[in-house]
Input
Amino acid sequence: MSSLQTSTRPVLLAVLEYGEMPELLRVAESARAAFGAPVIFMFVKRSYRRLVEDTSRVVDSGFLWMDSEGNLHEKAASVTSAVSSIQAGDTPPPAEVKLPRVPEGRNFFAKLRIPLALAFFSFQSIFSACRSSLRSVGRDVVNVLRDRKRFRARHAQLASILAKVQPRLLIVGQDSPGNELSFLLIAAGRQKIPRLITPFAMFSIYETAEYALAQPSYQVDASAMNRVVATVFPHWSLHYRGRQILRLPGYRAMALELTGLIKGMPWSPLSEPAEAITANAAVAADALIDLGHASQNLHVIGSPIQDRLASHVQNRELIRERLFLEHGLTPGRPLLVCGWPVNMFSWLGSKRIAYPDYPSVARAWTTILSEVRTRYGINILISVHPKTLQEEMAAAQEAKLPCTYANADELVAVCDLFTTLNGSSITAWAIACGVPVVLFDCFLTRYPDFLDVAGCITVETEEEFSGQLNRLCGDDEARRDLARLQASESTAWGVLDGKAGARLNELLIKLTDRNDR
Output
């Protein structure tokens, strides 16, 4: 640690991916208001891709930041340091998914289960040799030993950093087994540091299961090690779309069980225990309960972004006037905001869709949006996700569709119609604001989250997408009818009373009161 350490115990926010940053920055503001203490952002991933940009945002907001090795900084990262850091490191919708049960006696039986698992693996390997090469079996053993050593070392390092910093509270925006946030939460629990998870998105078992289904190495029948894990540790296995899949490759799951660095529910996107988890709405809380989280640890408080949405809705006309002027839009005409589709081809794995590559997806969206703009004179504004590369915007820019990387919450709150991919987390913002939504599921994720929302229309083909946009852009009454249906759903999807920040402050103080006495 550097000399920047103070006598006042700081609040530590840990970041794994840059998608978490906007919400965590707002949470950090609440933490500063609640405690008047130093706030430190820790970028736990050694290959964090936006270190320069995001540490600049942290420093500009008046916070400190810490790199993945625990070094504390007052100034933003340079390009050189960021580069060094990176170098270092067609079926119907599914039926209800039943989550595997995590055994209550996991810790008690751990010492017995592990040798049994290894013994079973040895016998299984012999019988599997006729189907898979000994080389594959040996590779899995090597991977288990490698990951076990790596996981232990990283957990020990993170535990040491926590012991030095001694934060009054640890806040994360997500968690999943086998990554730094999981290890950090486990280490904090062992050191009696209160833990708060403030999800930056809605989570669903379907998203996790679809990803696993698309990965050959996650299939139970892919290797002897996978079959052993599914048998000895059945809470890692899930029956989905007629296949038996694992949450992680078998060797990685085995390494986590061997090290004891998995305390929670592998299939939950928030896998590790925490003293509190915030939910931004009743729907989000219900989803977390369905994933197995205890309701007494859940706090439906809204979120700082919802306070911003509430303000935007109140100042709708002034914001629209400014946006129209900034982007050269036509006053008096409806505004269609498009959450530009992110590139999900790496997520697809072996799954095939109608589009061979991302440029073909971008061209399809551009063509349909351009057509409705020309036909109906509607204003269109593209909201671009921070992870979208500049070249992925080429089609939209060539068509002269106005694009912006800033203030997505503002755009969603004041538009007349919103469209994006199925599964996009900002869809919940639109629902909370009563804005009608068209979701084009061009990647065939088939997430069911928004299927039963009255003001959301989900389509899977270009023809359906074009048809719905033409109908809603060309018929003001049809669009207003859909908006009325959306308004009837809005309170379940957001708490837009402008008091979420105050409720978050109260929760932060409550979590730390016991430790501060």
Summary: DSSP finds 20 helices and 16 strands in the chain. Residues 11-88 form one domain. Residues 1-6, 86-95 have pLDDT under 50 and may be disordered. Residues 134-165 form the longest helix (32 residues).
